[in-house]
Amino acid sequence: MSHSDVKTPMRSGSCGPLTGRADVPGDKSISHRALIFGAMAVGHTKITGLLEGQDVLDTAKAMRSFGADVTRDADGVWHVHGVGVGGFAEPDHVIDCGNSGTGVRLIMGAMATSPISATFTGDASLNKRPMARVTDPLALFGAQAVGRSGGRLPMTIVGAADPVPVTYTVPVPSAQVKSAVLLAALNAPGQTTVIEREATRDHTERMLAGFGADIRVEETDAGRVITLTGQPELTPQTITVPRDPSSAAFPVCAALITPGSDVLVPTIGLNPTRAGLFTTLQEMGADLTFENLREEGGEPVADLRARYSPNMHGVTVPPERAASMIDEYPILSVVAANATGTTQMHGVAELRVKESDRIAAMADGLRACGVTVDDGPDWWSVTGLGAGNVPGGATCASHLDHRIAMSFLILGMAAQNAVSVDDGEPIATSFPIFETLMNGLGAGIERI
Ligand code: S3P
User: Fold this and answer.
1) Which of 70, 281, 307, 316 has its CA at a distance of 20 to 30 angstroms from the CA of residue 113?
2) How confident is the model at residue 232 (pLDDT cuts 50, 70, 90)?
3) What CATH number is given to the structural domain containing 121?
4) Residue 2 falls within a domain, yes or no?
5) Domain count of the chain?
6) Is any ligand 1 atom within 6 A of the Cβ of residue 207?
7) Which residues contact 5 (CB under 8 A, 6 or more apart)?
């Protein structure tokens, strides 16, 4: 059943201190990539800690449709028997990527340089999102795309039978676009060069190197220049997926705004291309400590401890930090509402084309809860009321967006009146254990 078929209204009200250990699930970005690269290697890739959220399960299903053997052991270990670069079979049915922009865009890239066709669709949220940002560069390799007006799904990609390598400067800061181009480049002969003016999450580059591809990354005045040699034989890997910092953000921020809280989030990924939220929170005066900094599976990780921080203040978040916290602005705005002064967030136009228009979705709900929000095309600001002073009391629309639903439920924990969301169903795309985990720490999230 798709997420749009069922609605689960949820409510969250003030609660006692949040305490204990929050074992958040595996990283969504890395989980998608582990399955896709596993499918493009010859032989057996073993994955532990895979996020079993709906987005990633949809990618696993898609990899089976392209011919890879993907299985799960009873203990949660996943196995991918890949078909090799250029080995994808043509799927015999439509590929449904559900809610996942990362899933559909990366898979389009992975199949675009093979002589096969595939038709992609998704839920009501995904079918509104722009795909030209991916199909434009894929056309340079020789792939063709036919979709709905505005470059939207459902869409068929006809892969290039004789792909050529490309040089491409990514026009928007997007790791999905960068990754789609790099995945397409795998089956093109010769060297493909991707240039990104602003660094975005680099899990694809790290994983390509891990699978044995010839990839070079140079920091230049024009930005990050990534050069990949096509048609390698990828070597299967054993991958341990770190816990998702974007999911950790929810219990961490909940602890910061809920009186008396002290929460430990072990082994979270702290890749610098993902850690912008934590820098921002520390600038606001959050009590965060990073313990046992170490490296696991090619990614930096640490145990993060968050304690109630009643004296946080507003800050200006610079545009150059946006890519490293792009998924965290909704929950940051909840913290900002509980800080004193105004938090300004600049260079965030990409927030308007996520699972929802995240600026509009958060602004509407925060205003309904008594918080002043201003916004423009690529910026927004939240005027904080100070710790515990948000009136709350509204029902907020989640717009098929997991991070919007979770953010408002966290807002309710520190608000004067409970906050409801019209639909908590999308939470299962990235954080299926959110409700159990948060209530285990002491929250009072309930279904209504
Ligand atoms: C992702 C990249 C980001 C992010 C998304 C995951 C990825 O999207 O918002 O949740 O795994 O590459 P964009 O590439 O559109 O910025």
Assistant:
1) 70
2) very high
3) 3.65.10.10
4) no
5) 2
6) no
7) none
CA–CA dist 22, 164 (Å, integer): 47
Looking at the domain assignment, is residue 218 inside a domain?
Answer: yes
Q: How far does residue 174's CA lie from ligand 1's centre (Å)?
A: 6
Q: Is-contact 331 410, C-beta < 8 A? A: yes
Q: Residue whose CA is closest, atom 5 of ligand 1?
A: 102
According to the 3-state scheme, what is the secondary structure of 288-311? EEEEEEEEECCEEEEEEEEECCCC
Query: Lowest mean pLDDT: which of 1-5, 43-47, 220-224, 389-393?
Result: 1-5
Examine the domain organization and report whether 289 and 303 are in the same domain.
yes
Q: Is there a single domain that holds both residue 290 and residue 433?
A: yes
The pLDDT value recorded for residue 296 is 84
Spatial contact of 231 and 187, defined as CB atoms under 8 Å apart: yes
What would the mean pLDDT of 185-194 be, rounded to a whole number? 98
- Whether ligand 1 lies within 6 angstroms of the CB of 135 is answered as no
Using an 8 Å Cβ cutoff, are 65 and 95 in contact?
yes
Residues 213 and 276 in one domain: no
Number of Cβ within 10 Å of residue 441's Cβ equals: 23
Reduced to 3 DSSP states, what percent helix, strand and coil does the chain have, rounded to the nearest 5?
35, 30, 35
123 plus 21 within the same structural domain: no
Domain hosting 408: range is 10-26+242-447
* Averaged pLDDT score across all residues of the chain: 97
Assess whether the C-beta atom of 60 lies below 6 angstroms from ligand 1: no
Is the overall model pTM greater than 0.85, yes or no? yes
